[in-house]
Amino acid sequence: MNTVKYNTLSANPETEACELKNHIGETIRLHGAVYKIRRMSGFAFVLIRMRDAIVQSVYSEKFASFPLNLLAEEACVRLTAQVVAEERSRTGYELRLMEAQVLSAPCEELPIVINQKKVNTSLENLLDYRPVTLRNEKERAIFRIQAAICTAFREFLNREHFTEIHSPKIAAIGAEGGANIFKLPYFEKEAYLAQSPQFYKQMMVGVFERVYEIAPVFRAEKHDTSRHLNEYTSVDFEMGYIESFEEIMATENRMLRYCIDFLREHCSDLLTLLGCTLPQIEEIPQIPFASAKEWIANSCKRKITDMLDFEPEEERLLCELVKKETGSELVFVTHYPSAKRPFYAMDNPQNPEETLSFDLLFRGLEITTGGQRIHSYKEQIEKLHARGMHEELFESYLMLHKYGVAPHGGLGLGLERFTAQLLGFENVRSATLFPRDIHRLIP
Q: Which run of H or of E encompasses 36?
């Protein structure tokens, strides 16, 4: 007869860093990696990088049953320690090491110093050695904050009755059209990596009314700038039964305000570590595209050279003007020219040369694009034809319009751009785990 065995180990039998202050006077077990060893006269400080924090422990031959040279920086260890009250410590306690088990140790010296306050190297080196440099306290704080941003967005959207979806990233056609899509062989057909979940989230409005997705998107753009990536994470939502595209902006306004409040409550230590100043978000001001161009030209003595879009410098200047005028670090720019927006963008009934669309600029950079979509089958076919596009290529997408869908709209927010602007980074790659651009495919 076979005997069934059960795993009786708990998932987390050891003490977490956030729990240590609750165990003063006790002997506890913990695990982590040796982040730094600071040898002093007669003792040593041993910093342990745990899941949720870097904690300081004290090694002394008086209490420890093992030699200090057993430990090496970046060795993964399991430790037994006493939690002792210590008024001189900012935490109110110290850890006295008693026993140590080395689970693994590095076989080579680290190629780059990571246990200082900042990894003092170029951005290229920072990215080349990403599996190692992300272990730095500040580097990993960036992505704990980014994870918290996603948590806040999900909490907000779930409370607003949105349903999370997961759309395919291999598609028969690109959402935007044009040449900036990655082509790949798909068995005996041709396929593309998705530029956005646009078609699918519109389809799902007809199913759930309100949907969202946080997922990668791919753009085959040969830009080599501090603001562009070829793969990034897009925070998308789409909502039905809207009366105006302004409802979409109002929803994003509330979502961002919720996010900032969430970060302030849950990530204060991380934000302090990174020297981040959170924006105050109340009602985000709006300005039409044409008016914004004129304001920049008049105030900054600049000649308008492109009436279809902003130059990066214009985005920066507009944010400066808006902050000076209103105090807001964010601004919605509305009514972009129809010639610059995709074929599914709804034109303004009062002026068909412009769309019911918007961008959101934050501290000098566009982080969101959104707007109202065409929901009428007749109007969508007419716009396809006007642009010389073939409706046969969009047959499955056009089912949405052919069989009825409510007035709807939505947006896409670049997670890495938002994180970079929030934390004051000059390059979006600093807020990207493993960037993909025209030069970088590894690690």
A: strand 27-39
The count of C-alpha atoms lying within 13 angstroms of the C-alpha of 357, restricted to the half-sphere facing its C-beta, is 25
Written as six digits, the tokens of 194 are 């998705």
| Closest by CA position to 199, among listed 2, 17, 380 | 380
What would the pLDDT profile of 411-425 be if each residue is shown by its tens digit?
Answer: 999 999 999 999 999
The pLDDT value recorded for residue 77 is: 97
Predicted confidence at residue 138, as pLDDT, reads 97
Round the average pLDDT of the chain to a whole number and report it. 94
| Exposed / middle / buried, residue 106 (Cβ in 10 Å: 0-12, 13-18, 19+) | middle
Distance CA 274, CA 142 (A): 8
* CA triple 175-178-179, angle to 5 deg: 115
Q: Is 101 helix (H, G, I), strand (E, B) or coil?
A: strand
CA 183 to mean position of chain CA atoms? 25
* Overall average pLDDT of the 384-395 stretch: 93
- Tens digit of each residue's pLDDT (9 = 90 or more) over 134-151: 999 999 999 999 999 999
Query: Do 417 and 367 form a contact (C-beta atoms < 8 A)?
Result: yes
- Alpha-carbon distance of 349 to 335, in angstroms, equals 11
pLDDT, residue 137, reads 96
Structure tokens at 208: 């759930």
**288: β partners:** 334
Maximum CA pair distance of the chain? 89
Q: Are 21 and 36 contacting, i.e. CB atoms less than 8 angstroms apart?
A: no
Is the alpha carbon torsion for 43, 44, 48, 53 positive or negative? positive
Confirm if 152 and 258 have CB atoms less than 8 A apart.
yes
User: Which range (6-10, 111-115, 147-151) has the least confidence?
Assistant: 6-10
The angle, 0 to 180 degrees and rounded to 10, between the axes of the packed helices 312-326 and 289-300 is: 90
- Rounded distance between C-alpha atoms, residue 96 and residue 269, angstroms: 24
Q: Render 163-218 in DSSP notation, one character per residue.
A: EE----SEESS-SS-SS-S-EEEETTEEEEE-S-SHHHHHHHHHHHSEEEEEEEEE
27 half-sphere exposure, CB direction, 13 A CA radius: 7
Q: Concatenated DSSP letters for 337-395?
A: BGGGS-TTBPEETTEEEEESEEEEEETTEEEEEEEEB---HHHHHHHHHHTT--GGGGH
Total length of the chain: 443
